[in-house]
Amino acid sequence: MLISSWIMLGWWLANLSGDLFGLIYPQHYIRVRYEDLTRSTAKELRMLLERLVPVAHGNLNGAIACDNRHQLHGNKVRLRHLSAADVRQDLTWRSEMPAKYSKFLLPIGSVLGLRYGYGKRLSVE
Questions:
Q1: What is the pTM of this model?
Q2: How many CA atoms lie within 13 A of 120 on its CB side?
Q3: Which of 34, 71, 74, 114 has its CA 20 to 30 A from that of 92?
Q4: 91 closest CA partner among 124, 122, 119
């Protein structure tokens, strides 16, 4: 439980740090929800490119590839060649998180979840 508490604290701090950055530098801040990125990868990447590099127009097919996808996939695949088409939502936490952790962690996570546009409390459904 202690490790999971540290993970939740780290998640909170990372998100609140991003929020603080967005308040200080709103012109340099774009929030993209993980679910939106994984469900509509090309659309979200196109929006990001248009906002971040307005002069860069073109086709994303095969153009977006990165050797380091640590934030999306974890360390185990960081050396694999991936493209935007490879981005998939990972919901294994819903089936693999022990019930004793979810009863403690999900209510805490729900507070920020509501802030980021998740209309209901987070759950393992």
A1: 0.60
A2: 3
A3: 114
A4: 124
